[in-house]
Amino acid sequence: MLRFPSPSHASPPRPPAPPGRSRNRRRTAAVAALAVAASLTVPASAGAAPVPRPAAPGHPAPPAKQAVATGFGGAVSTVDPDASRTALEVLKRGGNAMDAAVASAATLGVTEPYVSAIGGGGFITYYNARTRRVYALDGREFAPKRMRQDSFVDPATGRPLPFDQAVTSGLSVGVPGTLAQWDLALRRFGTRDLGSLLRPAIGVADRGFVVDQEFHDQTAVNEARFRDIVPTRELFLPGGKVPEVGSVFRNPDLADTYRELARHGTDWFYEGGLGKEIVETVARPPVDPKATRAVRPGLMERGDLGAYRAVPRKPTHVSYRGTDVYGMPPSSSGGSTVGEALNILGNFRLDPRDPVTALHYYLEASKLAYADRGRYVGDADKVDVPLEELLSSGFARERACQIKPDRAAPAPVAPGSPDGRYEPCVPPGTQTRALAFEGPQTTHLVVADKWGDVVSYTLSIEQFGGSGITVPGRGFLLNNELTDFSFQPPAPGQAPDPNLPGPHKRPRSSMAPTLVLEEGRPRLAVGTPGGSTIITTVLQILVNRLDLGMDLPAALAAPRATQRNTPQVFAEQAFIDRYGRDLAARGHRLELFPGPPQGVIGAATGLEFLRPGLVQAVAEPTRRGGGSALVVRPAR
């Protein structure tokens, strides 16, 4: 049972966080991040319509999930029933949306260790009902001070490291931001201390959870990599085997780590003993001496952890179809790219009676916005990002004029010029930077409370399994977020790259926790995992809901396609079956999304306020095994 001090939501909010981390007041925090691979492909059984594997004899079946819940008093949607129940219990006992989001994320660190953890980072957008404002909290990892533009270039060859070698290495590990972000979020907006919010996750880690098909498959796809790293093998391959569906997986090391965080606070992570263990693990990855895999050491030092700060930022904002859409600013490209694409689409009428034309415009707007993302968006603390112009109506009109209603532009298209001097049209280009790889393995949760506060939170350790490196005896994996940087500086004469590595620089992300307000009050919250497909998934859900007349469950479940300024439009099979022929007639080249998982784009969660007080929480019905939506008091 959760036990909390009596709620005081009506009391004034905590003062804004100071520029430095509050060392004396730092509360405990933790979300275990256990990681699973980068260059790999999830088996077909993890696709859009998974075939459940029977539980192992003598083992319980995984808990049931429901994709839609409508009711009052608060709502939550995550990918995992344990995480959703944790958030719901916090709400029932008087905690607010931020309290519930942090507790839920900590539980996801146990049950979804390959995509979320205290070894990673994330982004939060938050609507505060008291102030009627939207806030953005940046917990993105940053690079060590010793990181340079050519750190991912092999000095022996002068060429970028092979991607799989870069991922499974200490070199890929960014300074984790999750705990600092939780500390900032709770000090500014929470009503509970982090120690109490970790208790449900500690219970799940001690008791264990029932292994489902998704966890089994994510482990199996990483089996060879995990075997080569001793503490990862010992934790995630118990008895030397991939856990069977229906078996119970326990993580007592993570439970103990959470207890120590509750006792010592997050300074133990950033400036104390746990931080020292993390740095030692990154510098000397614990590889089995018998393994033939080359696992490079990393560049992280103790001072890098001490220098890390989670940062409050001004959210991005655009108006669209009578709503206000808020998102995450750089270093995430989510808010800027979703916002630019919506601004472009605002120049066209999207008719639900003609979905093919609407989807054509959606794909073309995505193509143009991705070209601009690649050229201009990086860590705004380190490079000049023309964010105001990228989100200006003038720039959107200039880009929209390139779209032909009956013909797709050959991709890649060139970026535009967000310089404040906008012509009716600019000639289409043919040269632009190639799409950088960005791992699709992330998770997203949404929470609303009875006061009307709303959290949209995307968190990640990058690939399934992150770097593959587990901190010995601590129960969590370290991220590989630094592989989101561009690996090699541009050739002489080419445009500068805003996403090159650098000291204490945050790699560009696509995470897009999004809030939609109408007349100043929340209407929608949505987000998804999916690497660089996050942007198109969020955008397509918004188009489905706001333009094509779908309700939110249908908007999430609808088949997806992603156009990221590549020659192909990658899509799910159901999208190809339904729209492929008509879109091909307009010049779109559709191919099955390669994954991982193959043929599956994203795993979104969302919620919608149907009327004051009545909230509908929505999760995926089938993708990645489906999600879990719950409400405090179901509507009858």
From TrEMBL:
Entry similarity comment: Belongs to the gamma-glutamyltransferase family.
Keywords, comma-separated and alphabetical: Acyltransferase, Glutathione biosynthesis, Hydrolase, Signal, Transferase, Zymogen
The organism's taxonomic lineage, starting at the top: Bacteria, Bacillati, Actinomycetota, Actinomycetes, Streptosporangiales
Pathway: Sulfur metabolism; glutathione metabolism
A GO term, aspect molecular function: glutathione hydrolase activity
The keyword tRNA processing appears for this protein: no
Catalytic machinery residues: T442 (nucleophile)
Compositionally biased intervals (Pro residues): 10-19, 51-63, 489-501
Quaternary state and interactors: This enzyme consists of two polypeptide chains, which are synthesized in precursor form from a single polypeptide.
Pfam families in alphabetical order: G_glu_transpept
Start and end residues of each stretch annotated as Disordered: 1-29, 46-68, 485-510
Annotated source species: Actinomadura luteofluorescens
Positions annotated to bind L-glutamate: R140, D484, S509, S510, G531
Identification of the protein by name: Glutathione hydrolase proenzyme
Protein EC: 2.3.2.2, 3.4.19.13
